[in-house]
Amino acid sequence: MSSHRSFGLINPAAPKVLGPEAAIALLKTGTAEPGSLLAYGNGRSYGDSCLNGQGAVVDMCSMNRILAFDPATGMIEAEAGVLLSDIIAHVAPHGFFPAVVPGTQFVTLGGGIANDIHGKNHHRRGTFGCYVEALTLLTSDGQTHRLKRRSKSRLFVATIGGMGLTGLILSATVRLMRVPSLDIEEEITPFRGLDEYFDLAEAADAANEYAVAWTDQLATGRREGRGLLITGNHAEYGAHKAGAAGKLLGVPFRIPVSVLNRPFLKLFNSAYCWKKKACGKHKTGYQGFFFPLDGVADWNRLYGPKGLYQHQSVIPEGEARTTIPALLAAAREAGHGSFLTVLKRFGGVASPGLISFPRPGYTLTLDFPNRGAETLALMERLDRITVESGGAVNPYKDARMAPEVFAASFPAWRNLEANRDPAFLSDFWRRTAMRLSTKAARVLAAERRNSGGTRKTRTHSN
After folding, report:
1. Alpha carbon separation from 360 to 128, 187, 195, 317, 347 (Å, rounded)
2. Listed range (4-8, 41-45, 122-126, 439-443) with the worst mean pLDDT
3. What is the spatial distance between Cα 274 and Cα 420, in angstroms, rounded to a whole number?
4. What are the transmembrane regions (predicted)?
5. Phi and psi (nearest 5°) for 79?
6. pLDDT of 123 higher than 80
7. 3-class secondary-structure state, position 274
8. Which among 27, 70, 86, 307 has the fewest CB atoms less than 10 Å away?
9. CA-to-CA distance for 94 and 251, rounded, in angstroms?
10. Across 84-93, 126-135, 220-229, 315-324, least confident range
């Protein structure tokens, strides 16, 4: 069986996999069939945006060379399949670090661009796409495009956050951030409720490069909304050499039941809160700060044989104090517990991409073991709460949202469809945008039929 699945383990594995050489040769001939291809990085997307069940995925991981690096400017050029961990190891001795990193270093450069990833410093740095200076894109007409940031071409803009739908990203040039060291001066600030967190968040962002909060989603009564605000800045003195990116522990097989049940999560949340509160202000390694779960191989297997759903929303700032508690309460009322519930404040740095998830407001990430219909019902309720607040649901982490939710979250989806390469399609895009397009075409056809019928009646009466 193919190992090319999404990280949520909800969707079937990709039935057909091509190597990059075969895909490049096919594209250069201009004979790729419509909807037959989609680039696949390291499989860290939670849903079906990285899958193409009716075609083939192109495994880009063998295209993993660093092509050039200028230690004077911090500009690096690399192939699309290189991992962020490899980039960090290459540039750290020279005092550089990626300006934006997600919660894992095991994502590919191409995947980071296609998903326009964000991190704990969106309030200062924006998304990964803000640092892409150029990229090389191969399209199904056989053309190789060298797209540059300053050109602001439609194809460049559509490729940033474009979910791999505009063609095959071969390589990219990215601007890195100069840092005094890899180590992080971390500070843990407990808060007793969400109102206290919201009171702290803006000032924390202003004072720190990185800020993120953990909240105990299961807490009720006087502990409801409790959590920890975790802030950090690169230490003036510390390590300049990246540590090994290998896994410390592992989950070697799919566990027959989820171990992340409600009693376990209550114990875990209490222990996590107690341990972190005791830390106060201290220096920590970058891997523990940015990538705490990378030390456990295949930790997604802990959710059990049916996998997990993740729900990430962004809520406008003016609605956050009422909507975020409502989302947490909905999960509790449904009897679902979320492992490591994360809350962050997004800033106003705009992405250069056509479609990008982050926008000013607060983002909440919840993940749940898949319990079938009851979990899907919860996810739909979370969607409704989000959309009614004027917020958006993250498509890069989705495996089941309705087309209407996607349209409400991303009104510019039609512009991406207009720039989509016909040979490239994902299961996510089929499930959402293609259905929206089909529905719109049917409505338009019906309107034309009705309009034509009216005109005929009027002509006859005259």
Report:
1. 16, 24, 18, 7, 5
2. 439-443
3. 49
4. 155-177
5. -70, 160
6. yes
7. helix
8. 70
9. 35
10. 220-229
Interior angle at CA 367, CA 329 and CA 272, nearest 5 = 80
* DSSP label of 431: I
- Side-chain-side CA neighbours of residue 122 (13 Å): 28
> 368: domain range?
184-405
User: How many residues can be counted in the chain?
Assistant: 462
pLDDT class for 280, splitting at 50, 70, 90?
low
Residue type, 377: A
Tokens representing 122 are 């969106």
pTM over 0.85, yes/no: yes
Please tell me the distance from the alpha carbon of residue 91 to that of residue 93, in angstroms, as a whole number.
6
For 133, phi then psi, to 5°, come to: -85, -30
Ordered DSSP codes for 118-168? --TTHHHH--GGGGEEEEEEE-TTS-EEEEEGGGT-HHHHHHTTSTT-SSE
Q: Give the closest residue to 45 by CA, choosing from 116, 93, 132, 94.
A: 116
- CATH at residue 202: 3.30.70.2520
Q: How many domains does the chain have?
A: 1
DSSP classification of residue 85: H
Residue 60 included in any domain = no
Out of 33-37, 43-47, 255-259, 294-298, pick the least confident: 255-259
Q: Characterize 107-117 residue by residue with b for buried, 16 or more Cβ atoms within 10 angstroms of its Cβ, and e for exposed.
A: bbbbbbbbbbb
Give the C-alpha separation, 123 to 158, whole Å.
23
> Which of 256-270, 311-325, 422-436 shows the lowest mean pLDDT across its residues?
256-270
Question: Is residue 146 included in any domain, yes or no?
Answer: no
**Count of CB atoms within 10 A of residue 217's CB?**
25
How would you class 19 by CB atoms within 10 Å of its CB: exposed for 0-12, middle for 13-18, buried for 19 or more? middle
The Cα–Cα gap between 229 and 237 comes to 24
